[in-house]
From TrEMBL:
Keyword terms: ATP-binding, Kinase, Membrane, Nucleotide-binding, Phosphoprotein, Transferase, Transmembrane, Transmembrane helix, Two-component regulatory system
CDD domains for the chain: HisKA
Domain Histidine kinase per the UniProt entry, residue ranges: 436-654
Bilayer-crossing regions: 370-388
Pfam family, one: HisKA
The organism's taxonomic lineage, starting at the top: Bacteria, Pseudomonadati, Pseudomonadota, Betaproteobacteria, Burkholderiales
Catalytic reaction equation(s): ATP + protein L-histidine = ADP + protein N-phospho-L-histidine
Enzyme Commission code: 2.7.13.3
SMART domains in the cross-refs: HATPase_c, HisKA
Domain of life: Bacteria
Protein name per Swiss-Prot or TrEMBL: histidine kinase
Length: 670
């Protein structure tokens, strides 16, 4: 079954997906058997005479792996299989930061051995930085590559299919499984930093974030102090594969400590770049059989690995050639130290640092994920609670506003009802008083009429005087009128049915105009009239006269407050709807008084108060009653820009009381 995984290059480089044809464990198992067979064949061909027997690895030290069965089986799925005639070229990549003479002491002799084993191939040795080499290995730009044991386990476990060939043997370590680590250095005059725990929240410089021995093994040592080593330091500076710059930053005090790979400090001291007492190793661990100073656990040395799609025969030849190569006089060589479990544990824990330099993983997130989750839940709960409270407050506010509006409407209605009740009470009182006054005035008015008639008879016998005759006649007529009014009031009080007689509305209007003129102060108000010749109707002339006089008095009161400064009143009586089935006489009383509001205009339908100081608010009510008794329609219409027009419409003949509908802008009363 094919396994597919994603490999991401470091420092945000482009990532590439690779696939392996079989699991790494199965591949290593297959490789072990093939490696043992190749090694025995190589030793037999050399006749055991190339070096002392102790210099070459024995069969018991060899890890059995038969993974080089054939080229096609080792090829990565989806990638082209490299043929035997592979451009006649074999590329080997390596990195070396400090001057350790590895190229001269180990790589050049190994290169000569490989050229002898591959006489037809052009073998190229390429030096790069550790990061560039890691990136090139992921992109498969090299056939063989010398990388840290940690990066090798990363490639193998992540699914790239990197194949172990050999492990480097250096003079400074007697055991290659313990030959690589990190060292913390501080200035020699620094007294406050005595152990690794003192570096908490301090500034630290290191070589490369993806470097196994230059950073990851240092994090593993800090992991023994804290659960979150990536958050242990205050700030970390990476110098991009330059140990000299790390030393310089510590020397200048830009950082409190620096991280180097093991043996890099000793190499700088041998070159004269660092004095013996200038720096002090923090958290030093004495390790038997290791000549360099270290602050961390030691891990396997550099691993020479092959890309998985390399021809199987090439891998077997290269592995057997290098493992069969004797140690140099200085102790350089290759060995079968491939126990990389410690390196694998470091990579598994800190793979996020190596494989996610683009920030996909962050220990800060891992460290505070539960706190962030709790904070998010608290924030979400607060937002939800605020939304809920806002909704409750909004609903209750809406209900409160509705209650207040209803209460205001009820109060307004109650106010209007109280005003109407007060008006009815006043009307009842007036009705009672009118009945009483009519009863009491009946006798004095009758006496007044008798005295006026007797005075005329008495003066008539003593000579004719026109003025006296006119005065006595006027007194008699006014007394008769008062008597009729008193009798009418008595009939209202007794609720007697009124009998209408044929009358002329034009004459009634003229008589009302004369009565109005004799009892009202018209100073500053101009009055115009336009009457029809005759306007025959059926009705009570006295009631209609009272109605018209009341309308004229209201118009006069409004005209005196005209915004134009000069009041005018116009009276017009004309026929309307002569050609219709319901011809009517229309009486208009118009003034140019101040404009009235909508509320005032609506109150005209049910008058309950008066704008005049001496008024009781009963005038329009009486007019409405009189209009109803005559089957007439009393309307009001606002006049632009100011003023009001009262319209009385009466049938020209007796009808069932049906009337016309009010026009737009009119208000009907009665």
């Amino acid at each position: 079954m094919t396994r597919q995984r994603s490999l991401r290059p470091f420092k945000g480089k482009a990532q590439r997906d690779v696939a392996v044809s079989r699991p790494a464990a199965e591949r290593r198992k297959l490789f072990s058997a093939a490696l043992a067979a190749g090694l025995l064949a190589s030793l037999f061909a050399l006749g055991f005479c190339a070096s002392p027997l102790s210099a070459a690895p024995s069969a018991s030290d060899t890890v059995v792996d038969d993974g080089w069965a054939d080229t096609e089986a080792a090829a990565v799925e989806g990638l082209p299989i490299i043929p035997e005639a592979r451009g006649k070229r074999l590329r080997i990549g390596y990195f070396e930061r400090a001057e350790t003479n590895m190229r001269k002491k180990l790589l050049i002799p190994s290169l000569e051995r490989l050229r002898s084993a591959f006489p037809t191939l052009e073998i190229e040795l390429v030096k790069l930085s550790e990061f560039e080499l890691q990136l090139g290995a992921i992109k498969r730009e090299f056939d063989l590559f010398l990388v840290s044991s940690g990066f090798y386990t990363y490639l193998a476990d992540a699914g790239s299919g990197a194949i172990w060939l050999a492990t480097r043997k250096t003079p400074v370590a007697t055991v290659s499984e313990k030959a690589s680590g990190s060292v913390f250095i501080v200035r020699g005059d620094s007294d406050e930093l005595l152990e690794l725990g003192d570096l908490r929240s301090k500034r630290v410089a290191a070589i490369e974030k993806s470097s196994f021995s230059g950073w990851l093994t240092a994090l593993a040592a800090i992991g023994n102090i804290t659960q979150y080593p990536n958050n242990f330091f205050g700030k970390v500076f990476f110098t991009s594969d330059s140990p000299e710059e790390v030393v310089e930053m510590v020397r200048e005090g830009r950082v409190e400590a620096g991280v180097l790979s093991t043996c890099e400090l000793e190499s700088l001291q041998l070159q004269g770049l660092v004095s013996q007492d200038e720096f002090r190793v923090l958290g030093e661990r004495p390790v038997e059989g290791f000549a360099c100073r270290t602050s961390t656990q030691l891990y396997p040395d550099l691993v020479l690995a092959a890309r998985p799609d390399l021809p199987a025969e090439w891998g077997k030849i290269a592995s057997s050639t290098l493992l069969g190569m004797p140690l140099t006089a200085d102790g350089w060589g290759w060995t079968v130290a491939n126990q990389v479990n410690d390196s694998r544990r470091v990579i598994h824990r800190y793979a996020g640092v190596m494989a996610s330099a683009d920030g996909d993983r962050d220990d800060t997130t891992d460290r505070y994920k539960y706190a962030m989750l709790i904070g998010f839940l608290i924030l979400a709960g607060s937002v939800g609670y605020n939304i809920l409270v806002s909704r409750v407050v909004r609903n209750r506010t809406r209900a409160l506003v509705q209650i207040i509006d209803e209460k205001s409407a009820l109060e307004e209605s109650e106010k209007e009802n109280r005003a109407r009740l007060s008006q009815l009470e006043r009307a009842g009182i007036v009705s009672e008083l009118s009945s009483m006054i009519a009863h009491e005035l009946r006798q004095p008015v009758a006496s007044l009429i008798n005295y006026a008639d007797g005075l005329q008879l008495y003066l008539g016998g003593r000579g004719k005087d026109p003025m006296i005759d006119e005065a006595t006649r006027e007194i008699a007529e006014q007394a008769e009128r008062v008597s009729e009014i008193v009798e009418r009031v008595r009939k209202y009080a007794k609720q007697k049915t009124q009998v209408h007689a044929p009358i002329d509305l034009c004459e009634v209007t003229k008589r009302a105009f004369v009565t109005f003129g004799s009892s009202a102060d018209r100073t500053g108000v101009r009055i115009t009239s336009d009457f029809a010749d005759k306007a025959p109707i059926e009705g009570d002339p006295l009631e209609l006269e009272l109605l018209i006089v009341n309308l004229l008095k209201n118009a006069l009161h409004a005209a005196k407050a005209s915004p134009e400064g000069k009041g005018t009143i116009s009276i017009r009586l004309f026929a309307d709807g002569v050609t219709s089935d319901d011809p009517r006489w229309v009486l208009e009383v118009r003034d140019n008084g101040p404009a009235i509001s909508d509320a005032q205009f609506n109150d005209l339908a049910h008058p309950i108060s008066s704008d005049k100081l001496e008024g009781l608010g009963l005038g329009l009510s009486i007019c409405r009653v009189i209009a109803e008794r005559h089957a007439a329609k009393l309307r009001f219409r606002r006049v632009e820009p100011s003023g009001l027009c009262a319209i009385l419409s009466m049938a020209q003949r007796q009808t069932d009381g049906a009337g016309s509908r009010p026009k737009a802008g009119e208000h009907e009363v009665g």
